[in-house]
Amino acid sequence: MRILLVEDDRLLGDGVKAGLCAAGFAVDWVRDGEAALAAVAAESFAAIVLDLGLPRRDGLSVLSALRGAGNAVPVLVLTARDQVADKVRCLDLGADDYVVKPFDLDELAARLRALARRARGRAEASLRHGDVVLDPAARSVTLRGEPVVLTSREFDLLQMLLDAAGRVLTRRVLDEQLYAWGEAVGSNALEVHIHHLRKKLGADLIRTVRGVGYMVDEAPR
């Protein structure tokens, strides 16, 4: 899951980015409000972690601009402002969650997973497709009840495909969500990950839509 972190404090930003990356997120980090809006205009993110006290353009202005443009990306406000009035204002402007510093990184990761889950209209935390069950919080996958060992990238790719079951995801969309800025990506990396997932979970789980991308069919009801 690709996240945009908007935080001007370098020490805190380093810690949050490292913690979220360790939890399985692909994190892009910008340090001011104008850069945040430019990033959202150019890229697609599953969620935004937004500080309020930003240079060039503050967090409230960024939030207002996003919602005014009709952008529904989930936004979690992460700030030292703990007054009820600040929380109310952010939520009324369109924030989806509000976390006060200091905070626990595990809780932050859980809140981001919940935001992404609600944005996709899912109530259950786990993703199920036939005999395959994926638990985002534990970052575990089972096949017919037996654990399956996946690399971090394989897990993220499988989660994206299961989340979008019934829809084709293009190579561009998959690459954009799997990799943060500056990560080295081989030209055939996606195909290699798909090949490994098919070997581990069955050749029929992931379907290639030639000239378009990949998909997992909707699970039978």
Automatic annotation (TrEMBL):
InterPro entries with a match to the protein in the record: CheY-like_superfamily, OmpR/PhoB-type_DNA-bd, Sig_transdc_resp-reg_receiver, WalR-like, WH-like_DNA-bd_sf
Extract the signal peptide range: none
OmpR/PhoB-type domain segment(s): 124-218
Keywords recorded for this protein, A-Z = Cytoplasm, DNA-binding, Phosphoprotein, Transcription, Transcription regulation, Two-component regulatory system
**UniProt domain Response regulatory: residue ranges:** 2-116
- One GO molecular-function annotation for this sequence? DNA binding
The subcellular location is: Cytoplasm
Please name the PROSITE patterns in this protein's record.
OMPR_PHOB, RESPONSE_REGULATORY
The organism sits in which domain of life? Bacteria
* Post-translational modification 4-aspartylphosphate, affected residues: 51
Q: Which residues bind DNA?
A: 124-218
Q: Spell out the protein name for this chain.
A: DNA-binding response regulator
